[in-house]
Amino acid sequence: MGAGNAGTADWYRNFGTFDAPASSPCYAEWSLGIAGDAELISRIEQWPHNKRQPLLILAAARFLGAGITPYREFREFLLARWDEVSRVVLSRATQTNEAGRCTTLLPSLAAIAGSTGRPLALIEVGASAGLALFPDKYAYEYDDGGSVTRLVPQPDGARPAAEEAPVLRCAVQGAVPLPAELPKVVWRAGIDLNPLDINNPDDVAWLEALIWPEQDFRRDRLRRAIAIAQQDPPLLVAGDLNEQLVSLADQAPPDATLVVFHSAVMAYLNASQREAFRATIGTLAAERGCHWLSNEGHTVLAQADGSVVVPEMDDSRLRGRFLLLQDGVPVAIAGPHGQTLEWL
Questions:
Q1: By C-alpha distance, which of 251, 245, 341, 340 is closest to 284?
Q2: pTM for the full predicted model
Q3: 291-296 β-sheet, strand order
Q4: Most buried by CB count within 10 Å: which residue of 49, 51, 253, 294?
């Protein structure tokens, strides 16, 4: 991927051609525009490799107030405010915290809780603000095209939870093992290089900027998820996931079933970091009975070392979707924001 300008332009062309169109015509147009714009590509090339991905510059522009406009106006916005855009890109990361991904994780979490007969202790690596750590607090609608399965959280103390909870909707295919009720979670924690604070307005504004322009329903969902997390903020640890995971796992209550999970994180690690992570998971599985859920796509980030994030599944089969692994075994193909779930 160190192919200079061609590599970066290809990256934007791929994003605009495959990843963006179904979710954001605006981002598709902007990405394809940048891909064919030699001046912007050469400016982007001046940033470190891990700062060049399309979503980061697009979110930075949105954070600074870029509207949904044709590419020509977007380009003028970028050039006029390049120093500010650069500052945001260099100081922020793509930490999309999509509560909708809980639809993908829930069947596996419920199955793990059911098989062990114990409540869950959750650790998310690459947790952003920790909103995916509340799968037991959200409402769900799984639609198989013929019927809809609804799940709502149990009332919590004085207030009925279902009214404020975001409703996470998911179209399902195949024999998805939908649970009869939500699993019980007794402890939740996350690791992130730079955890976002749901009580910091700037961090919340960045989370909103990471949502693709046309997706107002995701912005509403984000606000509802933040309101739930603010009532009982998760334990978030700043640092490298390989350095922090074991010590954080040691803090989990021993009588709960530990589950470590991640979504769209492995692309940010090189091959040796991913190997180290798998080894740590193996140790935790052997010593703690820890379970592991991996929800990852191919094209989130181009690795400088050329390594592949999802070796278990052919790219043409995924087509911009994620592969869900449960304890290392592929079980489903999922929409990147939890909008679809196809059981294998």
A1: 245
A2: 0.85
A3: 148-151, 139-143, 167-173, 340-343, 329-334, 322-326, 291-296, 257-263, 120-125, 185-192, 235-238
A4: 294
Residue boundaries of the structural domains of the chain: 4-91, 99-343
> Among candidates 321, 308, 286, 301, which has minimal Cα distance to 126?
301
Q: Are strands 139-143 and 120-125 parallel, antiparallel or unpaired?
A: unpaired
DSSP assignment, residue 29? H
- Please list, in sequence order, all residues whose beta carbon lies within 8 angstroms of the beta carbon of residue 166, skipping any fewer than 6 positions away: 99, 138, 139, 220, 221, 224, 225, 228
Distance of CA 19 to the CA centre of its chain: 14
Question: What is the Cα gyration radius of the chain?
Answer: 20
Measured in residues, the chain has a length of 344
pLDDT of residue 318: 80
The answer to whether 31 touches 20, Cβ cutoff 8 Å, is yes
* Angle CA 49–264–329, to nearest 5: 130
Tokens of 108: 């596996």
Question: Are the CB atoms for 260 and 252 separated by under 8 Å?
Answer: no
**Residue pLDDT, tens place only, 274-321:** 999 999 999 999 999 999 999 998 754 556 666 767 777 777 788 778
